[in-house]
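Protein: Cof-type HAD-IIB family hydrolase
Species: Clostridium senegalense
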Amino acid sequence: MKYKLLCTDMDGTLLDNDKMVSEGTLDAIKKAHNKGAKIAITTGRIFTSARYYGHLLGIKAPIIASNGAYIREGDNVIYKCVLGINNCMEILNIFKKYNLVPHFYTANGIFAGDTKYTSRFYAKSNQVVPDEFKINIKKVSQWKDIFDNYEEEILKAVAIDDDFEKLKKAKDEIRSLGKYEVVSSFSNNFEVMNKNVSKGRAVEMLTKHFNISKDEVIAIGDSENDLSMISYAGLGVAMKNGEDLVKNVASYITDTNDNEGVKKVIEKFILEDVN
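Structure follows.
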């Protein structure tokens, strides 16, 4: 079998536009798993949210969460990289400078200056998932207390706003510092992690953890935060619905997330593989 690890993004990739995994995709994933391939969820979402979808897959799926700041398989935390108090304060001050709503993520919850964006994204899922998969969202005004109390837990910061010009200016300023990884997972956000934290770096760690080579890895995604893993993998795949910058670096373009693009990759490169 040529490919032994498949790493798939969630939103816009594994999940359709209704935030579901199709029965056909689930079936293909289980068949690939039974054939001996490892399937990893690789997402900008926090671990608890990703874990729910890992549970739905019905297999033991390693999870790369928070754009690579947190890697876990079952109860085993393979890697964790926190921002630290000083970095959190620096990022917060830039968010405030541009009047952006600050969000700081742990593996299990979100601290937000205003919950209007996170509630829009997570409220629906929180209504239907079991308690163990619910996302804790807390509105915060005293950030220093949060940073002090959760110094060893905060993995990334996220700015969300519908004013794209403000987002771009703040994103460029934080990038210019040269000490953070800054990527977007949606058009109305950007996410900030420590330098060298990325999906690509996390996938590299998984290949070493499983003792396989990069040439045996497939990575599938649709957005800027997927670029690093698509560039790293032996087979980098972009979704047809993905951004042009992702398609430009991918070696293969599959169908859209609403037309089971992930399933078609699995069938073509793992299930039909005769090696």
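Remarks: The chain has a mean pLDDT of 94.
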